[in-house]
Amino acid sequence: VCISVQIEYLLKKLTEAMGAGSQQEQFDHYKIALNTSREGLSAWELIDLIGSGQFSKGMDQQTVSMAINEVFNELILDVLKQGYMLKKGHKRKNWTERWFVLKPNIISYYVSEDLKDKKGDIILDGNCCVEALPDKDGKKCLFVIKCLDKSFEISASDKKKKQEWIQAIQTTVNLLRVGSPPPHKEARQKRKELRQKLLAEQEELERQMKELQTANENKQKELETVRKQLEAAAARAAEEEKKRLQTQVELQDRFSLELEREKMVRQKMEEQVAQKSSELEQYLQRVRELEEMYKQLQEALEDEKQARQDEETVRKLQARLLEEESAKRAELEKWHLQQQQTIQMTEAEKQELENQRMIKERALQVAMQQLEQLELERKEALEQYEEVKKKLETAANNTKSWKDKVAHHEGLIRLIEPGSKNPHLITNWGPAAFTEAELEQRQKSWKGKKATSE
């Protein structure tokens, strides 16, 4: 991990020196492959990696070489900035081109960039300062470095270089003034502290994993003991099940008789609903044709609309009663299952189970009484449905009377025959609350519940 962090920092500095953008995502993929195989790279492998172009795509060899030299100067030689500028002499006052090299506490200037002929040094300390100068003597981009013993006037090649040099020298002086190390050395120390912290966290994680593994082994032993105890209890329960088998058979026979009776009642109700639905479909088809031909009969059809709403209410009431009946049946099945579970308890709890069974039998009787009450409510709903049907017939007669009156005045008497059957249920105020397909789906649902209860 430590070596990969150093490689990441080196590649980042190289890409920045080459003027490329951030390649963090690309290096993350490479670091994953590196960590899975080994902990680092040799010097030759690092050279091959840089030369492969993986992190220098689109760069020529000269650019890569310049970037490597820049990184080497910064990290190894502590060179913060370097380049050609013009320097004004102290004696002759002439301007001469020199190669300047900025380090953390000194600026050296040479005849050329090969660093063979050194011409002098500018010693930097906290008392030095750098200031920009106006153009003079035909020279532009001037600035001056003031030290305790002397000052140095320098001319950069352009305004950008001038500002970069002023900023770099001022930053170096400020660091000397407060006694701080250069930025790259401070970053190196921070990376070292970060690596130590990551190693400590990794050791702590390994220690926690060992503790969890030990606790897991202990828990497995406890679970094995509990499993053996459960197997012994299951063997005892199997013996008790043989003694309670006769009682269970009697309860099942009784429950089967109750289910058969409920099945017959529900089948009769479904047949009645299907018959009424067929009649209602024919009537709605006739009403729809009357609406298209006699739109002036809206006031008379309002009574028919109200009657249809009452019919929908009754149908919803029937559906609700059927759902409540199904819920009660499910409750009966739940009581039956609870009785079966009660029967499977051990002999030591037999007396307590007998008392609970008596209580649940009383609850079962109460549920049966509630089911009978639902039967009465369903009969009342059928009576209401008959009343609504009579209202529909009255509304149909009123509609026919209005039709005869209009035909008498307009001479347009024409026999209205029932239209073809439509698979959709349409009312005079729009589509019904459900279609014929939905009604068939509900009938299938009822039959499915009936089969499940059986």
UniProtKB/TrEMBL annotation:
This protein's GO CC annotations: cytoplasm; lamellipodium; nucleus; plasma membrane
Coiled-coil annotated residue ranges, if any: 184-405
PROSITE patterns, per database record: PH_DOMAIN (PS50003)
Keywords carried by this UniProt record: Cell membrane, Cell projection, Coiled coil, Cytoplasm, DNA-binding, Membrane, Nucleus, Phosphoprotein
PH domain sequence ranges: 78-174
Gene Ontology molecular-function annotations: DNA binding
Keyword Disulfide bond (UniProt): no
Compartments (UniProt record): Cell membrane; Cell projection, Lamellipodium; Cytoplasm; Nucleus
Main location: membrane
Source superkingdom: Eukaryota
Assembly and binders: The SWAP complex consists of NPM1, NCL, PARP1 and SWAP70.
Role: Phosphatidylinositol 3,4,5-trisphosphate-dependent guanine nucleotide exchange factor (GEF) which, independently of RAS, transduces signals from tyrosine kinase receptors to RAC. It also mediates signaling of membrane ruffling. Regulates the actin cytoskeleton as an effector or adapter protein in response to agonist stimulated phosphatidylinositol (3,4)-bisphosphate production and cell protrusion.
Protein known as: Switch-associated protein 70
Source species: Phoenicopterus ruber ruber
